[in-house]
Amino acid sequence: MVRGHAKAEAQAKNAKKNAGKEKGSNLDAIKQSVRAVCPICKTPTSTIKVLQDHYASKHPKETVPADNLGLTK
Ligand SMILES: [Zn+2]
């Protein structure tokens, strides 16, 4: 049962580590959030939702490229 215990402990450690990581990288996440740039007029948008709204209002005849959709993941 030692192995099982060690595994559980490692998982708890990892969970703690990840939680701290998420908190600490909030600023980085915000910086990285400006990644969906309009390929047509180069306007930076924070989320794909904003980019979609931007397309709807500025480029209604264009469709949001699939490449940008992947950036939000
Ligand atoms: Zn645009």
Q: In what order do the strands lie side by side in the largest sheet?
A: 1-2
Written as H for each helix and E for each strand, in order along the chain, the element string is HHEEHH
Could you tell me the number of beta strands? Answer: 2
Bound molecules: zinc ion
Structural class: mainly alpha
Main beta-sheet annotation: 2 strands, antiparallel
Shape: rod-shaped
Structure description:
The chain has 73 residues and is mainly α. It folds into 2 domains: 32 residues; 40 residues. Helices cover 64% and strands 5% of the residues. It has 4 helices and 2 strands. A two-stranded antiparallel ribbon has the order 1-2. The longest helix has 23 residues. The chain binds zinc ion. Zinc ion (ZN) binds next to helix 3. Keywords: Cytoplasm, Nucleus.
Secondary structure elements and their pairing?
Elements: H1 2-24, H2 26-33, E1 36-37, E2 44-45, H3 48-58, H4 66-70
Antiparallel strand pairs: 1-2
Biased composition (Basic and acidic residues): 1-10
Region (Disordered): 1-26
Main location: cytoplasm
Descriptive labels:
73 residues, 4 helices, two-stranded antiparallel ribbon, mainly alpha, 5% strand, 2 domains, binds zinc ion
In short:
The chain has 73 residues and is mostly helical. The protein contains four helices and two strands; from the N terminus they run ααββαα. It has helices at 2-24, 26-33, 48-58, 66-70; strands spanning 36-37, 44-45.
